[in-house]
Amino acid sequence: MNKQSLMSELSAKIKEGEVSKKELLDLYNKNSKSRINFSEIFGYLGGFILFLGISFLVGLYWNILNDYMKVLVTLGSGIVLFVSANLLLKGIQKKYVGLSLHLPPVFLIPMGIILFVEYFLDTSLLSEKLFFAILFGLLAFAYLINNYFVKSNLFVSLILIFGSLSYALGVSFLVDFFPVSNIGAYFLMFLGVFYVVISYLLKHYSVVSIIFNWSGALIFLYAFFMMLEQGVFWEFLFPFILGLYFYLSVRYSIKSFMFSGILFLIFYIFYLNFQYFSDILTWPMLLIVMGVGTISVSYYLSNKY
After folding, report:
1. Would you say 277 and 283 are in contact if contact means Cβ atoms under 8 Å apart?
2. Radius of gyration for the alpha carbons in the chain, expressed in angstroms and rounded
3. What dihedral do alpha carbons 287, 292, 295, 301 form, nearest 10°?
4. Torsion angle, CA of 162/165/167/169, rounded to 10 degrees?
5. Each residue of 213-241: pLDDT tens digit?
6. How many CB atoms are closer than 10 A to CB 255?
7. What sign does the dihedral 267-272-275-278 (CA atoms) show?
8. pTM above the 0.85 mark?
9. Phi (first) and psi of residue 253, to 5 degrees
10. How far is it, in rounded angstroms, from Cα 266 to Cα 270?
């Protein structure tokens, strides 16, 4: 039976009421669940154990190594493993073997660069935060190039992790020079929105997409919550942001928005209680009414959706 005839038959069954939407979704979810790939897991575990082995071996002789040898065994071995991993990615079908070898360089190359700069360059004019921002930015760019040739959850994760570290340290460096009130919160809001947008652009990287969707949702609300102490405007605006979260979570079935919205609604209630209503009797009564109202809304939504 070809695809067209199968779809026609399925459509007829749906029209006749023999198959429901729920049954189709349950069947799809049951068959789309990926099985655990133990060989891939052990490949990554082997890469991490390889890094530990190199670390322990170097640690035994660290005190007797000169500066050149310390850079060689960290940066040198990291580069060799990085190149070897890329060659393996091109030469074999089991991509996770090459990807697993990318784990040790993630630690060795930054460590080697830091030692090289410390031993052989004059860093008196370079801010430490700026240095690490540039370092992590370059690492993110290197893995961005790698991901262009070989698509991988590992590379995307490293790009976003190193990119986020570079962004955070760059912002921290700018805050030192431009002491604008709560500039860090504004940058966190931007980072949260960026993570959510990225999570939808990377839907085919399922695990990475989920992680950054949840992270973005939580980071944005956390940054907004930090702004409550700036005045009534932010306190007044925060419930509308929570309302937007709940609307989007219901409208588009975004679990991360629902969970983070509920979490920060609880935080917001505690904030208002300690800030304004700790000794007022009407406040707990209002919370009781809000609780009953929320339960009523949940009942309405369960019937509608």
Report:
1. yes
2. 26
3. -110
4. -140
5. 999 999 999 999 989 888 889 989 999 99
6. 12
7. negative
8. no
9. 55, 50
10. 6
